[in-house]
Fold this protein.
Amino acid sequence: MPRSHALAAALHEEVQWLLDCKRKPTGVTVALHHAAAIAEATASGVLPLAEGQRQLLNALSVAETLDAASRGA
């Protein structure tokens, strides 16, 4: 599970960086924050691994979709 903790930390750092740049949370920021919370829950055993992976991939997919839409892609 150490990789899950590292992933959660990296996602939290990204969220903080986005907040520092934008000052207001965007949909991408909220989706990444949610992904970080899922990674933490999975790493701590609150969510079973398979469920955590599924939810994490969904949250990251939402973030990617919102990012692409915001850039007109």
